[in-house]
Amino acid sequence: MQAGCSVGVVVPAYNEERQIGRVLETMPQFVDHIIVVDDRSSDATLERCREWQDRLGRRLTVIEQPKNLGVGAAITSGYRRAVDIGLDVVAVMAGDGQMDPNDLTLIIDPVISGKADYSKGNRLFTGEAWRNTPHVRYLGNAFLSMLTKIASGYWHVADSQSGFTAISRTALQALDLDRVYPSYGYPNDLLIQLNVRSFRVADVPVHPRYGIGERSSMNVLKVIPTVSFLLWRGFISRLLAKYVIKDFHPLVFFYFFGIGFLIVGTILGLVYSALRLLTGAAIPTATIVLVAMLIIGGLQFLLFAMWFDMEYNKTLK
Fold first, then answer.
1. pTM for this one?
2. How far apart are the C-alpha atoms of 192 and 206, rounded to whole Å?
3. Which CA distances in Å does 110 have to 91, 106, 202?
4. What are the start-end ranges of the H helices in 114-178?
5. What is the pLDDT of residues 245-259, one digit of tens each?
6. Are 98 and 210 in contact (CB under 8 A)?
7. Is 60 helix (H, G, I), strand (E, B) or coil?
């Protein structure tokens, strides 16, 4: 219990037999309920959790997924159980021990105080992540974070892939958990759903722990294309739901013309450049001017659309 609110923590775990005990042992005492969701681990993770269940009693619930469904599906299973229990605030801490339990208070405070409906840890503000994370993975995270800003409308959220979060019961009950992406794109998809429903999101600096034996099975080169497509689809659905169906806003036209002009201008430029290289024929001046106008105009439309989106969502932080 914290400030009169019951607090739960969902711990998704997959093959974390070496770390899960430490995560449970260091869980702060103000956490009323811990929900570990084993995503059909092939090691002894589930057995370690059962052992801790004997020690922690009713404070610990262990859920075994029917098959390996992904981290997003594991978290949503934990969320459903948290709703059934009636917890006021539900945090998420991974089973690999990388999230510092001392930061849990920082994560839940904006939600408990009513300043936000959802809070998200930011691992990037100290610079530790650049020094301790493989640079390819760090740059991939930065790229997805940039795309997530555009797709979700939460322009202030710096670390989209961080899984250290907290959510209010009100926000949790409003979400369609059956439609949340089940794998690594889960945090990005959830932000889009939250924005459509106009929930406030807090960006909270946290201190990740590295070199403690944690392992990651994420393939950056595989995840980036998958999540990028997910973000594109979510971006379109957010524009339609928020700015057409719920409340019309002209930024939809700015995005439409911006993307359209940019695509047509780029394709036209590439086609005429290829013809120039293959045939040696000169590109007409009028065509060069048209391509330049389409690209420049498209970029201007996109910048105005983003500015409108920022202004519309500036109260959601």
1. 0.90
2. 22
3. 12, 8, 7
4. 128-132, 135-152, 169-174
5. 998 999 999 999 999
6. yes
7. strand
